């Protein structure tokens, strides 16, 4: 399961607009947030009383989006990563880091 997610065909934002629109940081984050597996993970965390979090890093031609939770252990805490997703800025293609 997993692999590359390709965006469905869509019309440019306006007549005559270029179809090579650059994917913004917010676009990449929204793309990852709305993936069914991420929505399921966030819902599972909420049911357990935990909270999901997102981290977005600029990696040149791609955005790297980390989906994770912060796990409290007494006074200490650490992150537990669900997955990293690489979103290509030109194509919008998404690739999961972990299968």
Automatic annotation (TrEMBL):
Low complexity bias locations: 9-20
Residue ranges of the region described as Disordered: 1-29
Organism of origin: Candidatus Sungbacteria bacterium RIFCSPHIGHO2_02_FULL_51_29
UniProt-recorded name of the protein: PepSY domain-containing protein
Protein origin, superkingdom: Bacteria
């Amino acid at each position: 399961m997993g692999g590359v997610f390709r965006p469905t065909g869509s019309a440019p934002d306006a007549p005559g607009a270029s179809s090579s629109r650059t994917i913004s940081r917010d676009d990449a984050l929204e793309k990852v947030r709305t993936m069914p597996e991420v929505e399921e993970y966030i819902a599972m965390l909420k049911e357990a009383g935990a909270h999901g979090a997102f981290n977005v890093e600029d990696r040149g031609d791609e955005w790297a989006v980390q989906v994770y939770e912060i796990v409290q252990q007494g006074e200490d805490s650490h992150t537990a990563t669900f997955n990293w997703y690489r979103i290509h800025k030109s194509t919008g293609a998404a690739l999961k880091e972990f299968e």
